[in-house]
Amino acid sequence: MRPVREQNMTIETMRNADSEIRKKHAAFAAFVAVSGLVFWKTLSTLLAYSLSRESSSHIILIPFVSLYLLYSERTRIFASTGTSVGPAIGLICTGLAVYSFAAWHVYPHDGNGLLPAATFSLVLLWLGGFVLFYGTQAARTGAFALLFLLLMVPPPDGILDRVVYLLQEGSTDNTYVLFRMLGVPVLRQGFFLSVPGVTIEVAQECSGIRSSLALFITCLLAAHLFLRTTWRQAFFALLALPLAIIKNAIRIATLTLLSVYVDPRFLTGRLHREGGFVFFLLVLAILAPILRLLQKSEGRLASGNLEGDVRARKEFAREI
C-alpha cells in the first residue's frame, strides 16, 4: 500500500504543479495584454514603422520568435519558478522612467521620435512581468528568449543612418577589391564605381541593411540552438557583419558584370530587385561548414573533459 500511496502523492503533486504553472501563464498573458493596451499607440506605430521601413521589417516577427523559443524550451525554463517582486518592480519602474524621460525630452521632429524609447520601455515592462510571475531563476534560464525581444526596438534614425553609411562604405570597398582581383579596370570616386561601359553608385538602398539584419538574426538563433560555449556563440553571431558586407559586394559586382557583358537590364531587372535571397543562400552555404566545425570542436572538448574525469576517478580509486 505504501508505494501506491507515494505514487498517488506524486501524481497529486504533479497536478498541483501543473495547475500552478497554468495560473502563472494566465497571469503573465493578462499582464502582457494589459500593457499592450496601455501602449497600444506605441504598438500600432511600431507596426506601421516596421511595414514601411526596409531596415525594420524584421520587428514584427521578433515577439513570435521569442514566444516560440520560450515554448520550445519550456521544460527547462519553467522547471523552477517563483515570485521575485523586488527585481520585477525595478524593471517595471525603469521602463516607466525611460518612457517618461523620453516623452519630456524627445520631440516628433527628432527622427523616429519617441518610438525607440517607448518600445524599449514596453520590453522592460514585459521582462519585469516575467520576473514577477516566474521568478529570477526562470528568467536567467530563459534569458536568450527574453533578451531577444530587444531586437524589437528600432534604433534611432541617427544611429541607423550611421550603420547604413558604414555598410555602404564597406560594400563599396569590397566591390572595388573584387573588381581588381578579377582584373576588371575600375575607377572609384566616393560611392561611385566606374568600369568599362557603366558607372554604378552604391546608394543607401544598396547598403544591404535588411539582409544584414536578417543574417545577424539567423546567426544569433543558430548559435543559440546549436552551440553551447559562449565565445563560440558570440564568434558565430559576429560573423554576420563581415559576411553580409562581402555578400553585398559579390551581389553588386555580379550584377554590374552581367550588365556589361550580358545585358544592361540586369542592373534594373528582377535579379536586382529580388535576387538578394540567392546571395543570402550563398552566405548560408558558407556559414554551414563553419557552424559544423564549431560544433565538432565543442564535441572534442566535451569528450576530452569526460575522459579526463574518468581517468581522475580511476586514479583516485587506485589510491584508495
What would the keywords be for this entry?
2 domains; 3-stranded antiparallel β-sheet; 320 residues
Describe the structure.
This protein has helices at 2-38, 40-52, 62-72, 74-77, 85-105, 115-134, 136-141, 143-147, 157-181, 209-226, 230-238, 240-261, 270-274, 276-319; strands at residues 187-189, 192-195, 198-201. It is mainly alpha-helical and 320 residues long. It folds into two domains: 2-153, no CATH class; 159-319, no CATH class. It has a three-stranded antiparallel sheet, covered by helices on one side. The longest helix is centred in the C-terminal third of the chain and has 44 residues, at 276-319. It is globular. The model is unreliable at 306-310 and 312-317 (pLDDT under 50).
Task: Provide a quick synopsis of the model.
This protein is mainly alpha-helical.
- Beta percentage is under 5%
Largest sheet, strands/sense/barrel: 3 strands, antiparallel
**Morphology call:** globular
Order of helices and strands: HHHHHHHHHEEEHHHHH
Q: Evaluate the radius of gyration.
A: 26 Å
* Alpha plus pi helix count: 14
How far do the termini sit from each other? 42 Å
- What percent of residues adopt helix (DSSP H or I)? over 70%
* Structural class based on helices, strands and sheet pairing: mainly alpha
Number of domains: 2
Q: Low-confidence stretches at least 5 residues in length (pLDDT < 50)? A: 306-310, 312-317
